[in-house]
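From the pipeline queue, job 12 of 40. The input is one protein chain; the requested action is below.

Action: predict structure.
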Amino acid sequence: MSRKFRNVLTAMIVVVLTAIYVVSFFLLWDHFNVDGMLDDIMEHDFYGKDMKPSSPTTVDVTVAGKEITEAEELLLTEYFRYYYAGLGAVSAESIIQFYTNQCDYELFDSLAYDYEVYLLADSPLDMSFDECTLTMNVKRRHSVPRSEKFEIDIELSAFMETKGTGKTATVRSESHTFTIDESGKAPLICIHTTDRLINAETDRMLDSVLADNRLTRKDLTYTYYSKYISAAFSALKTKHSALTLAGADGYLCPAPEYEYDRDTAALTAVNGFSSDGFFISYDENDANFVSRCLFTSGIPMDSQGEKNDQWKWYDEEINTERKKTGCSLSWFDRAAFHTYVTTNTGFGLVGCETASGSGMLGDVVQIMSGGEPIAEFMITGVMAKADGTAADYLVSNDRYSSVSLLGFGYTDLRVLHIAGYNTANI
């Protein structure tokens, strides 16, 4: 057999074997559903496949409001079930399985989630819980033009409790917007935005870390984000570890004619209000909420003096408009409330700014960012150190009840001591 013939025969055998291999490959690919297995791996498509959070915390989720698809409901309920199961055990669960591949929001949300769990673990207050009841109220669902995506707005409410201790915490309403990619075999999250305070703080720190490196989010791809996410987490932990709630050396508060009912104020803040038709919501509804608690517990409204010196909802008649006979700015605006508390010397509320660790039941805390108050709460519980100063506070407002103040992740705080009130124009 000539060398030329052997070479031709060898080439033919190679071609035949290659053809057999290729045909077999595609037959086996279809038989074993390799496409589906790769989808599972690459798209994190694990939810709904007999997977359960590792935490023993029981999380029950119900859906109300506008109708969404069964697959969308499964995605969002499982997302929040994992999220709150981890918070209950103070040990973060994996939430990346609910996001599309290499999604920036996967990293942003994981950063906020990991930081929240870190804060809960580091807090002197035990914020773990055994059971959680969640309600997702769907406010809107609409398609994103020229795409296979849907945007869903929800308000999330949660009630967390620990068996046998009576310890509870409440989230009354959180706003979340999800953009859902439905181009695959199961829907996945590609964008998630929320007004949660801890997400805002972690986003701010991430942007600060990027700015220190002369970068913005637009400069980065998913691969390079991980480095700066890690740096932001380290910076957040460093900032938090430097926080101390100091005592009230050098702070003097005017003496009021009358003390006010702190227990009633705190209990009202914990339980919240029903909709009464008069005290409508404002943009800074947390300040409106705190003012209502103070008024309900005995402090009279102050309609004396000029408009900027008043603290009131109405004069002789109930008026929901922002006129002289209606609501004063200090009633619903955080900065104006701070000014009123620290400057009023006559009729009405008596108070002062005090040290961060000297707050009492029924006092008011404002979270600061960039020199401006971005959230306001009433103190409804105090975790005291041996020296009598606070290690942490349980706080409540229109959105949250009996939650850890330091669990929001902010270290810039100011405390307003509410001493009582005057009935005479002193």
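Job complete. The two ends are 122 Å apart (CA to CA).
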